[in-house]
Amino acid sequence: MALAALIISTVAMLLTTLVALACLELVPQSGTQATDTADDQSLPIDLSEGVLRSKPSAHGLPSELDQARSHLVLFLSPTCVACRKIAESLAGNTPVGTTIVVTAGPDDRLVNWAVQHGLHTAIIDSGYEIVSSLGLTSSPTVIGIADGSISFGTGISGMRALESLLEQRQGYEVGFVPTDGPPKLAGRSVDESRRI
After folding, report:
1. Which residues, including other chains, have CB under 8 Å from residue 165's CB and lie 6 or more apart?
2. Which of 9, 55, 70, 93 has its C-alpha lying 20 to 30 A from 175's C-alpha?
3. CATH number assigned to the domain comprising residue 105
């Protein structure tokens, strides 16, 4: 009788293991589908009254943006998986009418990450001056600029959400431009010796 109980218990354990393995085979498919759907999402960010309708340069962004009719500022961090995927999708090309800011880490690490992903014209915000001034606490994030003033902020989940924001800029040139030149430290050129 003890032997029969042991056999039944062993068979039950084997069946449970087989069912678990079969379920694990399904996880990558359903995980991919969930990621694809999540890649489309954006979530508006409540920007303070001091940020909305203010000039981008007041927050450490390039003064040229104070004259922009329609522009997006994309904030990426090397510690963020979605940011890495966006950077890889951009493949060294910056969307027309977009400025990229890389933040959350020491200068050298951020510069190396930007260069590794071909984001050569990115602004490096290692001291969190720009993100702190804007009140941003997560990435990837997009700040919209309309008629030279900050008009909205939104968190995005991936490249599809970024593409959707780019498409919403109707009447403006859509496309990608290769990025050349070194990244900038919060608007200043990066010294070549700082690169590893």
Report:
1. 42, 72, 142, 144, 154, 156
2. 55
3. 3.40.30.10
